[in-house]
Amino acid sequence: MSTQFLNTASLPYCKGCGHDLIAKQSVKALENSGVSALDIIMVTDIGCHGIIDKCMNTHTVHGLHGRSSALGAGISFGLENPGKKVIVFIGDGGATIGLQHIMEAARLNLNMTVVLHNNMLYGMTGGQTSGLTPQGFATTTSYEGNPLSGYDICALAHTAGASFTCRAIGVGDISDKFENAFKTKGFSMVEIVEICPSYGVKLNPKRKITEIVESSGRTIGEWRNERPAYKLTQGKKTDDLLKKVSTIEEDYSHSLKDPISVVLSGSAGEGVQLAAAMLSKTAIRSGLDVTQKGSYPVTVGVGFSTAELNFSPEKINFHGINVPDVAIITSQDGLQHNVKRINKMQKGVLYIDSSLEVPETGAQVIQYDFRGVGAKNAALTSIIFFAIKSEIINAKAILKTIEDEAMDKKVPVGKIKQALDM
Amino acid sequence: MQEKNKEQRVLIDGSRLIIESMARAGADTFIGYPITPANALYAYASQRLPIMLPAPDEITTLQWMSGLAITGKVPVTATSFPGLALMVESINMAYMMELPMVIVLVQRLGPATGTATCGAQGDLLLLKGMISGGHPVPVLATSDFEDCWKLSEQAVNMAVNLRTPVVLLTSKEEVMTQKSFNFNRLEEVKKVERKFFDKDCAYKTYGTDGLVPDFLPVNQNEHQVRFNASTHDQYGLLQHSSEDALNNTRRLEEKVNENIEHYTFYYYDPQKGAEELVVSYGISSAAAIDAVAGMRKQGKKVSLLIPKTLVPVPKVYKEIIEKYQKTIFAEENINNQLGQLIFGVEKPGNIRFVGGLGKMITPEEIIKEVAK
After folding, report:
1. Dihedral of alpha carbons A229, A235, A241, A243, sign
2. Complex confidence, ipTM
3. Which chain B residue has its CA at the smallest distance from A283's CA?
């Protein structure tokens, strides 16, 4: 017999299975709530409970084992119609593997209800122990009783912030539990404890659900958190990421005839990447093609900081640098990180802070006190010095870039100029 | 590319281009989980896409994306191998449910955690075999900034029009390196036209006379919608192995294979009289371009092929390769994954390979192999 929510009165469960009761009592609660079938998005997990979807007249989404709470969460995020309701049917096995998804939905207090069919074991796969199997409860993988204690998932969901959490025994009329959950604004979970007739009953003869629940220290009841339901809020957005990038006019010139690779290296926190960006932008405004990439340890605030740059009057394709044409080293960290490639330099120029020991190299060595205007300004000082010495680009163009980028408020340009006799 | 008179030169990275292009193409949601070297994509997406949500892990990322896709959104994420590995079952789910979404995969050196800040091209065969059953998830690979722009648009377009997850394959150096670039090289990105089922007849979630069923999200009350990750019939009802259901699974494969010709992108630069062909994709293609240019400058005749549609492999690549006496593949792994993809176990003797591990392949290495 078809009803508003069910297309059959005969549900596909073993005789005596609590899943049948849960489905019918959920439907009764929905009928009482006055919603229509297509207001409901029923998300089902993998497990015996999950085969209910073919019987439902609601929208149905049948997902992966354990992930239905996360899938339901995604649907809840995307629903802009507040009249719609996501209901997730999941078993204790799915709740075990997908525990974090339930916690996440509870933490965010998403508008959705998780109906947890807790028959205390994995029924579909042969009666194995789950994370919710109570201590002492026998399963096909623990015939003498589960030696481990199970999760109190209601306590976890409540602590995580669920608006409504409820545990009930799967006997009699329990539709009011579902009604309370479905009308909750925010996350709700109903845990119905039942015994699988195929495995649980046979392996635990004469045991009653109430006694099992009580002996495992669980409580039947309802728990509430007075919290607002999740509402999708987003920070300020831009309508065009490209508009946030300043275009660079070609207002200077360069003297470069062939491509050149430059490694600039110093210590983290000494402005290496910033200096590299100033050099790159200046090269662009001088008419050069540029690539720039950073290299630093996983913990970005310590150790070396290296920038690898390529400049060319033609379009650059390959931008890898093994042995550079120019190395600019402003600290011991930078030297250590690059000493092997400096050793391999057979030509080119090594610009190195005068406090450092000059490594073996075939490059021309130019020493200078880059750190003289302060360690934080060493990298910036070094690239201006490089521009003066190499004459590839105009050093004054770098100062103009610093000014254009409003960096002159943050770095002592005057002191650097003075130090470099500019 | 259309060149305009006034240049708009900038210093920019590929991540920004990818996210902006996808946003313009119709992607509206980003689910993020931090992972190097994909973090810039996450950062840009948080500024640009209408919805951005931080997931607690990559399984959740794909599940949230799937849920949002079920409500009619076009979600995107960006990750690297460790994240992709966690996503694989859920990508299978999205593939089976036929949900549009784009996964930007930024390759880094593996196996496992490998080296997070070192580039690589080691994930192609994983992507090829990612779906149980061997069915193809479309993979497009960027080789330059223009691709970051154009292929990102096409990835969104394909995801929506073919109702499928699509992977945009990149690597660390492609999305993190800043380069001078002229905005005027960017063509207009067209927003994908999203058509939902609007016929008078009853709706079947997986029913179609062709290969791609009409899509209908769950936030409407006109038709019942049934999404299903298990083997299912055209109604979306779970089946063991009914004919209808297995035909539906066959359709998933045919849907991508039959439509890939509309999404076949590659760059082919043949040189008359050339007997050798250099084939490269992704980050290594820049070295291949320089190598070919260098050899031609020296008077050597050599052709260049840069495949951009990688899965399913368009037949045209093999047809091009077969025109040459010798083909040199260049890709940053040690097992010639693209070569394996094209030729399987029967890689002909005239196929050579320049690989790399933990470092970018140089133009000189390619030139050396061509000269052998």
Report:
1. positive
2. 0.96
3. B180
